[in-house]
Structure formats: structure tokens, C-alpha cells
Structure to design on (306 residues):
């Protein structure tokens, strides 16, 4: 369970880490905590999975990964675990999720594929298709980024 | 912005393994053989240029008690701007992309409860006149990787 203090820590962390020699000391002062107790608590939140990752979130487009494709797959229900694990092992795949099918939407596995070109993404999708032996898939390229922000929790 | 090799080494280090310790920038500098001031100046530049979106924590929304879903809608070409304005106005919508598919608008929605999430999507339908939103919450996560290895 998260305490009130944990929620305050989470709110503070969403403002970004100060660019000073001892950032946790500064942040601790705002939270009425010592540097040591704040570091211990953030470590706890990370070790217990509340914090998935601690560090920098980068704009991957600026780093040359200009193409991204959402590749959606129609995988037999009894094979999703096996296939999902193989898909996840591709380094070009950043995200791999299972999601529900809908009427008119037969796809149940979703992979985000990143590359330096559209062709690279298409090639990766074809390699995945061969590796998992799934022929029914679609590759949806993004044509515009309309919004990209970070969620603000406990605000 | 143009990055040099030291910038890229810093990025590789701090995307996943940012030190949670009293003097993190000094530690990063020691790893790369540069000064703490240099590390801070370079990270500061990369934040200013927008290359680094944020320095801090990325949370597991489910562990924090939030509910989220991926939504897809069919939006007429001429209405994309107006519909995007409605959708993007929600703080719980963090990502919104156009994709080359009949279902052309894809966005993520996060809220404090399932009910709030449903209410948000119903409100979007009312405000845009769009009748159907495909809501595809994750049932299982095989991979979330958010760092990009740079040469």
C-alpha cells in the first residue's frame, strides 16, 4: 500500500530530478525527509515495481528511430504466451501486449516496432512472422504524433 | 540537437541505470571519466532541446491503482483536428497518434478507476459525435522497454 508520503514523493518525482550535485537532498527538503530516507524510499518503490524505471525518458524520434509501426497479430488463443515471449525477444520490439479482440478487429497481440526507416520496420515484422509462424498481421505506421506527454499521478 | 559520443554514452547510462544515490551526477561522470559539472551541463542541454523529455521516474500505472486502455477510432479526414482537440484536452490521454488504417486515431487513456475511464470515453463520444471507440486494455504484458541503445 502506498502511504500519503509515498504519494507526495511520486508527485515530486514527476516534477523531475533537480540538476544539482545532491538532488535527493533538495527534493527531501521539500518533502520534510532526509536525503537518506528519501533515497531508501525511492529504492523501495523501484524494487517493488511501483517505479518501472528510474532515469531519463527520451524522444526516440530525435535519436534516429524515426519510424515506428504498431504491428497487430491474430494469434490462436492457446499460443499467445509462447508467441508473445518470442516477439518480446526481438530487440526492435519495444512493447508487446495481449489485448482483447473485437467484432471486426481480430488481432490480439500488439507489438511496437522501431526502426530507422519504414522498410526496416516492415522487414522486422516479416522476420517476426516467420519466427512465430503467424501469417495474419497488419502493420500500422504512425503518420502524425498528435500528443505525447507523461501521466501526472495523484494530482 | 546534435549529440556527440559522450552525450550518447550519458543517455545510454541514464535511461535505465540512473544512480539513486546521494551524488548521482558525480557517479555518472566517474563512469565516463568526465566531471560532475560536465554531466549536469550536458543533461541540462539535452533537457532544453527536448531530446530528454523528463528526468525522474516512470511509474507502473496499474501498481499505482490506475486503469488504462488503448483506444482506436475511425475519424473522417476533415474532422481530425477538431476530434484531436477534444481527445487531447484530457490529462489522462497521454499519447495520441494517427495511423494509416481505417481505424486512424489511436490514443491511450488512463484514469483513477474503471468507472472514470468509461465515463471519459463516453464523454469523448458525446463531444465528438463519434459512435464507436474500440477500447483495448492490456490483458497481458510481455514487454515494456523504454530505453534505446545508442551507438
Amino acid at each position: 500500500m502506498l502511504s500519503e508520503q509515498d504519494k507526495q514523493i511520486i508527485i515530486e518525482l514527476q516534477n523531475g530530478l533537480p540538476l544539482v550535485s545532491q538532488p535527493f537532498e533538495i527534493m527531501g527538503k521539500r518533502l520534510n525527509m532526509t536525503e537518506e530516507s528519501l533515497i531508501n524510499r525511492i529504492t523501495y518503490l523501484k524494487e517493488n515495481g511501483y517505479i518501472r524505471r528510474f532515469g531519463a525518458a527520451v524522444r526516440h524520434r530525435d535519436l534516429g528511430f524515426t519510424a515506428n509501426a504498431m504491428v497487430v497479430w491474430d494469434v490462436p488463443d492457446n499460443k499467445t504466451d509462447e508467441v508473445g515471449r518470442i516477439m518480446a525477444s526481438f530487440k526492435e520490439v519495444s512493447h508487446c501486449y495481449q489485448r482483447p479482440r473485437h467484432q471486426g478487429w481480430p488481432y490480439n497481440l500488439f507489438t511496437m516496432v522501431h526502426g530507422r526507416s519504414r522498410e526496416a520496420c516492415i522487414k522486422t515484422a516479416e522476420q517476426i512472422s516467420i519466427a512465430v509462424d503467424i501469417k495474419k498481421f497488419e502493420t500500422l505506421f504512425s503518420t502524425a504524433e498528435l500528443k505525447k506527454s507523461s501521466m501526472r499521478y495523484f494530482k | 540537437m546534435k549529440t556527440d559520443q559522450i552525450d550518447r554514452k550519458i543517455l545510454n547510462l541514464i535511461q535505465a541505470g540512473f544512480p539513486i544515490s546521494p551524488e548521482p551526477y558525480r557517479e555518472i561522470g566517474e563512469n565516463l571519466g568526465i566531471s560532475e559539472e560536465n554531466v549536469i551541463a550536458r543533461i541540462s542541454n539535452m533537457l532544453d532541446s527536448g531530446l530528454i523529455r523528463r528526468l525522474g521516474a516512470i511509474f507502473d500505472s496499474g501498481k499505482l491503482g490506475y486503469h488504462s486502455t488503448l483506444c482506436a477510432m475511425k475519424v473522417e479526414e476533415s474532422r481530425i483536428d477538431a476530434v484531436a482537440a477534444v481527445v487531447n484536452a484530457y490529462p489522462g490521454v497521454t499519447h495520441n497518434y494517427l495511423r494509416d488504417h481505417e481505424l486512424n486515431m489511436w490514443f491511450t487513456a488512463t484514469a483513477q478507476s474503471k468507472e472514470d475511464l468509461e465515463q471519459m470515453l463516453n464523454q469523448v463520444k458525446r463531444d465528438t459525435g463519434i459512435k464507436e471507440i474500440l477500447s483495448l486494455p492490456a490483458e497481458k504484458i510481455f514487454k515494456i522497454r523504454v530505453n534505446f541503445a545508442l551507438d
Notes: Strands of chain B lie at 52-59, 67-73, 93-99, 105-111, 134-136, 140-144.
